[in-house]
Amino acid sequence: MANHHKTLRIKTKRMLGLFGDFDEAFEVIADIRRYKVPGLTVDDVTLKSPIEHPEIEDVLGERPTNVPKFAFWGGLFGLVFGFLFLASAQANFLAQPSGGKPVITIPSNIVLAYEMMILFGVLSTLVGFIIGAKLMRKSEGLYDTAITVDQIGIVIEVADEQASPLKDLFAKHNVLEVREEALS
Amino acid sequence: MSAQQSLAHKHLTYEQAKDIDENIEWAKINTDVLRSMENPRRGYWVAMFISVALFAVMIYAEVYQYQFGMGPAALNTSHMWDLYISTFVFWIGMSHSGTLLSAILHLVHADWRKPIYRFAEAMTTFSLLTAGIFPVIHLGRVWNFYWVMPYMSDRGLWPNFRSPLIWDAFAISAYLTSSVLFLYIGMIPDLAICRDNAEGWRKKLYTWLSLGWRGDDAQWRNFRFTYLMIACFLIPLAVSVHSIVSMDFSMSIMPGWHVTTFPPYFVAGALYSGCAAIITLFILLRYFFKFEHFMTMPILDKVCKLTFVIAMVWTYLNLVEFASVWYGHDIPSKEVLLAKASGPYSPFFWSMMLFGSILPFALLSPWVRRNMYVLFFVSVFLNVGMWLERWMIVTPTLSMGHHPQAFNTMWPGWVEWAMVGGSFGWFGMLFLVFVKVFPSVSMYEVKEMVYHRKRTVYEDVDEMMDLHSGVPGPSSAPASQTTGGA
Questions:
Q1: A129 contacts in B (CB within 8 Å)?
Q2: Model ipTM?
């Protein structure tokens, strides 16, 4: 149903509402979830906040993150790569006398492969974070430095006819400031 | 006894007992921390001058050693490690508390870590960078250090992967990389705050480092998972790093080193010296940057109690090591132990016991825990004890190995002392630069702490008022984030 509404309207502008209190912003998103603004859904909402608010997922819904997968696969790669790297290096010693000791020494390689597992796990997690959080990209407009101080921002892309009801909704919940910009 | 009576008994007011004031304005948090990064005071320049001077002496000593060999450092056949490796272990140990404690406290949701973890993690990074100097300079031929790197040599030579020294190189490299990333990722939201308030070169630097952070819900969500994942990686990593450092010794058959309890003993010692260093830096930052609102006495109290607990664990493991040697009846090991207690190094051994095992009992006194001046000196002497511990691990064993013809008592030369002193200068320089370029208190996490404390207080008051009078509590008119007031 929500997707059906979205296809009918062409988004023409982006609006930012700044709130002094998280509870007010929470209520705005809850009202959007209750379809108080025709055609808008919580999928259109981006919350900007100075601190982390995990409780926002109560109204935004659980949005997936791939960071744990990056951590797992990075760690696994590090473990396997670390062991194979060491073993292949040690295989060079085949040409040299090893005094009866094993050429590929499993106990010591476990220690080093363990360290490589953690190192690559951490590096891979960082990559997952940068991709998932959409960092290192050209940032979209509508931002206010008050968001890194103490205000909560709600950013929504809307069609022309949705702008007015959304402003009313913002006003109902004591918005401090509303800004808008045309979508290119 | 009620909570109020209990506080009165301890001569504390309710405000003093809180580890953060939940009514502090968020804008003030930004302002206070950002102000600490501006206009260094005279004390800062004095500290920087001392650090640079110590480091300059270290450079001179290294050039001198480069010219004349290892002789001026008083290193000889049996004493090839001595203060260089003792100090290396000391700095590796110092690095442990920052990241390890920060990660553990993060996982157990101990939010009192929030105002203090940033500088502790920075301490980790700079301690590792300091520790890394010593394996290089103890080689003498510093230009051959790259031999420990596992690179493709045209002669088909690789490092000996069976050697704990190579494990060290891998473990410390992994730990340094991971710790730097842990510190950096945790700082990204604060770098965005800096970016929004900076001008000139700082603006460019923070814009670049904040990676376009805008506080989106998607960014926070991914941030939460990333920080959690890296904390999970770092805890076993930190434990493994100091275990591996201990294996530099325990994997050998030298008397006094070949002890199975060395890995936990080293990890406990590392946490201990790191906690003591956190107390020292806590007091200095609180005093010089006027961080009384964030680095509060109840938080310091918790760190002191944690330090005492870890000190007792270290003491226990120390005594276990002595008992193992004593009852193990390995004659060379027993002789080394007796020589530590009664030989030429005995004053340092007993000083170590005094500072490491007896002095921590001072932390049981509430008066000591609340007296900044006394606590500062206690924390410094705890670390003196921990440095002596590392020296007493390394040097007595090298004096009395398995070959009686190689027995000799060795006293460090001026070059070694210069290197040790210079390492503190190098660490001091890095730390002093850090606190002026990056926020040493996590602004967004102090806000989180304040926010959650406030909500908890209001929820509690709501419940009480509903229960007793049916009067609506303060959360019916929720406090604004912008003002901080109720």
A1: 185, 222-223, 225-226
A2: 0.90
